[in-house]
Amino acid sequence: VSSKAYLNPGCHLLLRGRKPISKALLMSSPLYGNFCEGFAWSVATASYQIEGGWRADGKGLSIWDKFAHTPLKVGNDDNGDVACDSYHKINEDVDMLRRLKVNHYRFSISWPRILPDGTTRKINEAGLNYYHHLIDALLAVNIKPQVTLYHWDLPQALQDVGGWENDTIVKRFRDYADVVFSNLGEKVKFWITINEPYNVANIGHGYGTAAPGISFRPGTAPYIVAHNLIKAHAEAWHLYNDRYRAKQGGIVGITINSDWALPRNPYKQEDIDAARRVVEFQIGWFAHPVFNGDYNKVMKNRIRERSFAAGLPKSRLPEFTPEEVKRIKGTYDYFGFNHYTTVLLFNHMLPIIATYPGKPFTYVYLTILNFIKEEYGNPIIYITENGISERGNMNLNDIHRIHYYENYINQALKAYLLDGVDIRGYTAWTLMDNLEWATGFAEKFGLFYINRSDPSLPRIPKQSATHYATIVNCNGFPEPSHTPHDCQILEPEGNYKCHFNREDITLTLLPWPTYATFCDVTLLSINRCIM
C-alpha cells in the first residue's frame, strides 16, 4: 500500500490504492498534496530587528534601544541602531519577498516610531508615512500585509512609569491601536495585537534576559505583566470589532508561542504531568483566557499551592473579575501560533532543550497543532512563526534549514489533511538575518544572508530561500516525478550581479534555483552577491 496521499482541486484527501492506509505509516512518510486555495504563505520580521533608523524622523526611544545600549546585555554589544536598515530599504525588502513567491508579509509597527512618548499627545507623521510606503509597495506586487502592533519595542517613556506592570498600559495600548487602525486599516486586513506575550512576561520580566531586563521579582512581575497583556489585547480586539470591523473588514488575533513538551520517561506519571504543566504554562497561560475566559486550572492550582507554601496570603497569579472574564473571552478571529522546537521534561527539573530540532522532533508539530484543535474548539490557525537558526561561519547552502522547513511544513500539511486542523496560513521566521534580540547578529534565522561587512547591507539568498519559494509556489508538496512540476520551476525575477575576488560577472535571466546554487560562497569563494 502506498504511503502517499494526494489532494484534488477541491481540497479533499485522496489516497492511492483500495486498502486503507495506516496513520502510523503516513506519519513516518512524506505526504504529497496541497493546502487549500488562498492559503496565506508568509515570512515574518519585527521592527526593532530590521528597521534601524533608531532616531530617524522623530522616532522615540524604545526599551530595546535602552537595553541594547546597556553594556553586556546583547551579544557582542550589538544593537539595532542600523540593523538591516529596512527603514531605508523598502524596495530591497519587497524584492526579497517577491523572490520567495509569498502572498503575505508579516511585519510589526514600532510603537515609538508612531507615538514617540507612547501616548497620543504627539503622532509622528513621518513614522506613519514609512508604514504607508511599505504597505503600498507590498500591495503593488500583490503581497498582503500582516501587521503586528506589538513585537516587544515598548516606548521607553512608558517603561519609565512602570511599563507593562502598570495597569494604565491597557488604555495606552488601546489608544495606540486606535491610531494604527484608523490610519492603516483601510489597507491592512490582518492584525496581530501582541507577539509572544509569554516572552514579554517571562523573559523580559522574569529571567530579565530581554528588554526591559527585569529579573528581581520573578515570582510576581511576570504574572502582573501577563495579566495586563491579556487585558490590553482584549481591549484592542473590542476596539476593532466595535469601531473598525464593519468598515475595514479585517481580522484580529493574538500570537501565542509554545514549545511542545515530551516526558523524558513516557511511562512515568510524574514526567507526563511535568510535560503537561509546561504546555499549560506556555500555550495555556494566554490561550485559555482568550478562548475560555480565565486561566487554566493547572496554572491556578500550581501557583496557589506554591504561594501558600511560601507563606503568602493569596496566590501570586492575579484574578480576573467576572466582568473581565466576559470581556476577554472570545477576543479572537483566529489562533496565531509560533513554534520552534520540543523540550524533554522530567519532574522537578528544568527542561532539557533539543539543541537541534530536526528529524527527531518534527513529528510533534502534528501533535501540538492537534492539541490546539482539541483544547480550543478547532479554531482557525495561522502559523505566524516557525524556523531554525545557525551560528558560526556563513554557509549559504543551509541544508539544515531546508530539512527543517520541509519536515515542519509537511507535518502541518498532515495536520490539515489527515486530522482536519483548520490551518489557513504558514509564516517562516525570518526573511533575513537580523538582530536576534539578546544574541545579537551572531544567531541567524534568515532565508537571506545580510553581508554586514558591506555598508550597503546586501541581501543574499540562501539555498533555503529557493526551497521555501518552491513549496510556496506549489502550495504544498507535489508528487515526485522524473521531471520537475511546473510549480517547481521558478521564473527569474531580473538580473543578478555577483562580485568575485577578481572580476565582476553579471548573471542575466538565470532561473533563481540556478542562481542560488551558483552564488554560493562555499563553492565559489564569492565576496558578496547583490540583487
Automatic annotation (TrEMBL):
Keywords: Glycoprotein, Glycosidase, Hydrolase. GO terms for biological process: carbohydrate metabolic process. InterPro entries: GH (IPR017853), GH_1_N_CS (IPR033132), Glyco_hydro_1 (IPR001360), Glyco_hydro_1_AS (IPR018120). The active site is at 385 (nucleophile). GO terms for molecular function: lactase activity. SUPFAM superfamilies: (Trans)glycosidases (SSF51445). Transmembrane segments: none annotated. It comes from the Eukaryota. Homodimer. Belongs to the glycosyl hydrolase 1 family. This is Lactase. It comes from Electrophorus electricus.
